[in-house]
Amino acid sequence: MTQKQPINQITEGVIWKQLLLFFFPILLGTFFQQLYNTIDTVIVGQFVGKAALASVGGSSAQIVALIVGFFTGLSSGASVLIAQYFGARNEHAASDGLHNAYAISIMGGILLGIIGSFATPSMLRLMNTPDEIMQDSVIYLRIYFAGIIFVFLYNMGSSILRAVGDSKHPLYYLVACCLLNIILDVLFVVAFHMGVLGVAVATLISQAFSALLVTRKLLRSDGMLKLSFSRIRFHGSVLKNQLKLGLPTGFEAILFAITNIAIQSAVNTFGTDTSAAWSAYGKLDAIFWMVSTAFGISITTFVGQNYGAGKYDRVRKSIRVCIGMDFAAAILLMLVLVCFRIPLFHIFVTDENVVEIGLKMMATMAPFYWLFVFTEVFSGALRGMGDVVVPMLITTGGICLFRVVWIFGVVALFPTLTVTLLNYPVSWVLTSVLFLFYYHFRMKKL
């Protein structure tokens, strides 16, 4: 007698309920990942000073976002394929996808770690990093790049777990990693007075711990995604398909990061106080982005598995439900950030001039967060269907290209901080409109 297959709640269960059950672990995981980085900022801002704050959270953060963003985008190709294989119950293809993904992580981590360590000073100079924070920024980035392989392994492993509906274990690992990072930050910075060096070493150790945990989980898996070190290698056809789906998203992330680097360079021209304020605001701004990203990851997995199972009506309905949830969350977060803006900024920095600049940044951007909802959900849904090229072109044109033109055109004519930051809400409007049109066109074909 054939054993009955367990019910896949993503393809069978109540959509809004399953979206929330899947969303909250991702949200909490994203929160702890952000907290993981925010703790560094809080500790150096309070115990070392604003120059150290700018070193960890300014240009360095943008360069890290460039590298990690590319690999996260690349790993999305693996997770989308695995989600579709899992939805179709294709065990052999899913296993090949897992081991190919780990091979990409290891090779990519080694190569980018070496390149990043050598290129760090040049990248910082290109971003107009102030001289007073250059030395600490170089130290932080070089140690970060030394452990970049651990970041890649964790991101790839956790994205694979989420692709098959397991959003809880990545959360558990991030919580453990975050707690370890807090302990080490306090020990190295507050107790041993190691400054930025202590923060960097604490980050490296914590990242290695998270990579170990997620790899251990996959090694002990009993399902179709059981990792075996002896099988980690490149599989030709799987590699081709993963790169086909992942590279456009990875290049999109690179262009996003380059655009943010251009904006960071423009912000740096206003001085260290403005750079420190941008760093502090970035941590508050990340509250919205971690919620929106969690919805984007959720809908990618939902659409991927249901698309693989051929349940197209369920694909459409899950997208509508996700948009409603993300929109409500965006409005709520906007209100919270605006109402509690002053005490929130004081968590990161005590310098009143820095706080005042940060408040102006928030007033320019926070009221318009809801505009980005359509871009996040539609792009995530389209990725789940394997449609990555057109969404990449829309995003790179509507956000990346537009912002670069804005920086070198509008800001050159009106060189103020407010004009510099207005490119964000304007680009959100443009990109969301483009996605609305393309999504309706794509769903008619489906």
Map the helices and strands:
Elements: H1 9-12, H2 15-47, H3 50-57, H4 59-88, H5 91-126, H6 131-146, H7 148-163, H8 168-191, H9 195-219, H10 236-268, H11 272-308, H12 312-339, H13 341-348, H14 352-365, H15 373-384, H16 389-408, H17 410-413, H18 417-421, H19 423-445
In short:
Helix content is 84%, strand content 0%. By secondary structure, it is an all-alpha fold.
β-strand percent reads under 5%
Instruction: Report the total helices.
Output: 19
- Largest sheet, strands/sense/barrel: none
The computed structural class is mainly alpha
- What is the H/E order? HHHHHHHHHHHHHHHHHHH
N- to C-terminal distance: 37 Å
Give me the count of strands: 0
Radius of gyration: 21 Å
Overall geometry comes to globular
What is the helix content? Answer: over 70%
**Mean pLDDT over the residues:** 81
Give start-end ranges of low-pLDDT stretches.
none
Can you describe what's shown?
It is a single chain. The chain is mostly helical. 84% of the residues lie in helices and 0% in strands. Helix 2 (15-47) packs parallel to helix 8 and helix 5 packs antiparallel against helix 7. It has helices at 9-12, 15-47, 50-57, 59-88, 91-126, 131-146, 148-163, 168-191, 195-219, 236-268, 272-308, 312-339, 341-348, 352-365, 373-384, 389-408, 410-413, 417-421, 423-445.
